[in-house]
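Two proteins were folded this term; both appear here.
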Amino acid sequence: MPRRQMNQKIAVSVVFVAAMFMNIMDTTIVNVALPTIGKQFHVAADSVDTVAIGYLVSLAVFIPVSGWLGDRLGPRRVLLSSVVVFTLASALCGLAQNLGQLVAFRVLQGVGGGLMVPVGMAMLFRIFPPEERVRASSILIVPTALAPALGPVLGGLFVTEVSWRWVFYVNLPIGVMALVFGLLFLASPKSERAGRLDVAGFLLSGAGLGLVMYGVSEGPFKGWGRPEIVVTLVAGALLLAGMVWVELRSGDPLIDLRLFRDSLFRTANIVMALGAVSFLGVLFIVALFFQDGLGQSALSSGLSTFPEAIGVMIGSQVVTRALYPNLGPRRTMFTGLLVLSLALALMSLVDTTGELWWMRGLMFFVGYGMAHVFTSAQAAGFATISGPDTARASTVFNALRQLGGAVGVAVLSTVVAEIGPVSRVGGRLVPHLTAYHATFLTAAAISLVAAGAALRVDDRAAAHTMVRRGARPASARPAEEMAGSRA
């Protein structure tokens, strides 16, 4: 079948969902295998962490240039090439014979991951008109919800029953199928004008984000007062400040910070970033709570976390079919964040293995509440972004989401470390569940801050996206016209 005969909404959705699924799952599935990898390569725990850190830093470095590359070389070419890089790097990770090789291949994996998600998202929002953006956002929910929950389950199975190498090999069939499908059915959309590469912007943003990502990822475990952490964070912050100064004065910036003049885009990004801090931080901590706090196995921990994915997928259907078209993004996100905050606060009351089913039910509502944010922020955030700006808006959106997740893990891990994950009772060390309870309350507080930010969303600017499924919009202005309403 010639590729142009397939509906491009379907073609782009299939390839993007597969790419995003691999990218998101890769983080959680690899974390489960790190202790086993350390033992096989005979390295200390603080050294094997470079397997995870190398990937995150590489993502941070290459996300900023993704929008420019998509416009310069064509989004189809960049998306499929990045899938090839990610899949090949996954195979090489599985074949690695020492820690150095594995870290190098993980950095290569991050190159593919840093490019494919922003470029794929830009293609998705260009192919779906504004009145169908909620539908497009519901497509994004699948990998966003399923991947982080499925990762620990598969990781536990592979490490226990097969080999840690399969946490990387699992990407191969997904990547190959996405590539073949894309080659057969994905059309080459018209490329936007890319202009010259903003070298200064790339160096400053890549180095700055990379250093900050390293600092916030290692700070909770090595200590925030360690000189290497302090120097890394200060250097990263200075480079990012320099990036802001340079980009605001550039006629053709790599990261178009002027997009934040659009009040709807700005507020949606703030809500999404704060939501990522709370949600992704909790997904990391709750695995430790199940395993270190309640003594569950890695597989049992993954299965207990999985209701979150069910909650997100059910919640996304409720949002797209009923809430968003009738209530708009402001009230939908606010309601979801209140549900998320309540569920997280109630988690602080769980302190025995006998309450596991109660905890699993709360995980469902964590996902259900966050679905309101994922779907609404993505639909409303791009509602007033013009076609030519979509790629660079996607770059900003994904960079903030990625940084928000890293900050969430750092903040909540620091809370656990400061209170202490263990305490001495009767001369022996036992899990100190108060530390985990404090993290859940901290995440709940962050969610409430996000809810306050959601109240600043202007539903009128996103009105043309509030269309019921199957209904024709009465007056849907294109994004190019809406862009003129930026505040």
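Next, the second protein.
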Amino acid sequence: MKGDARPGRGAGIAAALALALALAGCSRGEPRLMNIAANTTSPDEFSILPTRPLLMPEDMTALPEPDPGGASRSDPTPLADAIATLGGNAARLAAPVPAADAAILARARRFGTDPAIRATLAAEDLEFRRKKDGRLLERWFNVNVYYRAYRAMALDRYAELARWRRAGIRTPAAPPDPAAK
């Protein structure tokens, strides 16, 4: 008798492995279309660093309540800092809308505004990502499906450039399509 081989032992292991793989494909949380671990580049937003050093508070019991969207101790005015860094006037953030911009602001608000637009868009995007989560093997092997999921929404810049030029609008700074040679 060779070894300790029992009949059916290999089939049981294969069935257990198949069951584990099937269950692993089903247990997904929120869909991740842009898999950063995949062999593709990721957006620059993931390389954000604090601008000031993080400090330990003197009294841990006197910490302020979390304020999502509020000022941060390490970066209290990020928008004003960005405007100043790019050469703009950060003081204009607190100023009212200039009279010259009143007409465009009225036009943009003509159908009203939705104060819950961020929550609405987040829910719609989550549903869209769930529908476009990728095939079973793509999820197992963490394949990036972001670009395929949003392909229908992508703008073909060269087709749009040709449309504007056909309409007679000059676009001297736009480079020509390299594939049109």
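The chain has seven helices and no strands. The radius of gyration is 27 Å. These notes refer to the second protein only.
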